[in-house]
Here is the input.
Amino acid sequence: MSELKQVILVNMELGMSRGKIAAQVAHAAVEASLLSINRKEFSEWRKRGMAKVVLKCPDLKTLLQTHRNAKREKLITALITDAGRTEIPAGSKTCLAIGPNSNVKIDKIIKDFKLL
Here is the structure.
């Protein structure tokens, strides 16, 4: 079994505070983990420390294109939409989680993004 990870892309055009980003990343990580279909793979990922990487995504257009690309590759995805109770308007797309899936499959999708 190849190494597994989860990647979360943060929509940087929203100008969220560090605390807001942390909360949105947590939403994305949990949501994508719950969508994990392969229980054996999920258990292995958990056992190995649940590797996660958080990356900057410049804007909504790029976030949505990356979401489409990940779905086309049949990767687990969770696109997070904010409720609008604090800093940003309701309906804002804040984060995209990809995985847990194979490093190799995910890296094809996210190779051009930088660490947050």
